[in-house]
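Re: the pair you flagged

First of the two:
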Amino acid sequence: MDYIKQAESTQLSSLSLSRLEGNNAEESKRLLEACAQDGFFYLDLRDHKQLLVDYEALLEIIKQYFNEPLDQKMKDDRKSDTIGYEPVATSAGVLDGLPDYYESFKVSWNQLRDHVQELPTVVETNIEVFDRFAKYVHSILLMILSRLSQTMGRNNDNRFESYHRDSIATRTNLTFLKYPKQDTTEHGVGHNKHTDVGTLTFLLSGQRGLQRLTPEGWCHVEPRSGFAVVNVGDSLRFLSDCVLSSVIHRVLPVGAHQTEDRYTLAYFLRPEDDAVFKDINGNLVSARSWHDRKFDHFRASHNQQKNDTILMGGMEENQKFLQYKFQA
C-alpha cells in the first residue's frame, strides 16, 4: 500500500458559505486560489442549520435503505450511472486485480427538477427532504461557479454557470455511498483513484477514508463537522482552460480493512449534456460523451485503465501527480 501522509485538514482552505453568498470579494479571491492550487476546499456550513439538519435526516434514511436485503435494493437497479441502486464490486478497486467495495444509490437531478413519477420508493416517501436538500446544494454550487466566473473575468456565455441552464438535461445527481464493514479485503476494497467527471462535487461525511494525491504523495482529507468538502471536476478544469485543478483522489479504509460501515453523501454538479469543451488531448467533446466514456472506464480492468488517461483526467503521468502552477 502507498505511503500516506498524516492528516492535512489545516492545509486546505476553509471558505465561508455565508461570505460567498454575500459576494465578499476577498472570499471569492480565496475561492479561486483554492480551486486553482488545491482543487479541494472546506466549505463552512455552520450558519446554515437547515442544510445540516436535512443532511442528518437523509443519512438516517439512507442507512435504513442500505440495510435492506440485497434483492429488495436490486429492484432499484436501473443499470444507470445517474439513477438508482448499484451493488458492491462493479468497478475496478484500489488494489490491482480486485474490484471496488462500495454500494451506491443515485437520485437524478433531472428527475427531482421535473417531478417525474418514476422515483424510487425511498425518495418518493421522503420527497420533501430530498427535494429541499438537492435544490439548496444545487443553488450553492451554481453560486460558487458564479463567483469563480466573476473573479476570473468571464462574461456572458463564457461564464461557468451558463453551461448549467436549469431546463436542460444533465448528468447531475445526488449520490449516497456505503463502504460496508469488512473482515478482509480479498473480495475488494475502497474506491479506485480518479478525478471527478463534472464541474463541482459537494461531499459530506463524518468518517475518514478520503485521500487526495499531491506532489508529495497521498494525503488524508479529514472530515470536519459542519463543513462540506468541495472539489473541482474535469469539466470545470477543461472549461477554465486548465486554470482550475481537477485533483486525483480515492477512498481507502484507514486500517488494513474497513472496520465500520462508512457513509458518504455526494452531490455531483455536471454541465448540461450538450455542453462542449476540449478534453485532455485537445479534442472537442460533449459533457455527456466525457461522462459516459469515463464511467465505462471505471468498469474496465486495471490493465485496460493503465492504457488510457481518462480515469485520472490527464492529471497523472507514470503514477506521478502533474502540478499546474497558478498565478493570482
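Second of the two:
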Amino acid sequence: MAAEESESKNPTLKKELNLFGVFAVATGTTLSAGFFLLPGLAFQEAGPAVIVAYLVAAAMMVAPMLCKVELATAMPKAGGTYFFLDRSLGPIAGTIGGLGTWLALLLKASFALVGMGAYITLFFADAPIEGIAVALALLFG
C-alpha cells in the first residue's frame, strides 16, 4: 500500500521508446516539405553538383550526430538540447539552446506548410501559396 501511495505522489514516465520509435520520431521531424522541395530548387541552381553538396553536408553532420549520441547515452534525461547545455554550460545557455530548438521546430512546421501550399498550387494555379499555407495552418491547428 505504501508503494502505491509513493508512486502516486511521484509519477514518472516509463522509458518504453525503442530504436524504431526513436528512428520514427527523428525521421518525422527531419523529413518535411524541405525534403521534397529543396532538392529540386538546389538542382535547378547547381545541377549535378547537388549530389556532391549533399554528400559533403552529410559528412559534416557525422561529428555532431556522434556527440549527441554520446550525450544522450551519458545523460539519459528528457529535455534534449536544453538539458545537455544546462548541465554543461549553465541555465542561460540551456534556455537559449532550448528556445533555439523550439524556434527551429516552429519554423520547420511553417516551411512545411509553405511547401504544401506550393504543391497544392499545382492543382489550383490561381491560388496564392501564402493563402493556402495560412489555410492549412488553420486547418491543422
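The chain is about 80% helix and 0% strand.

-B.
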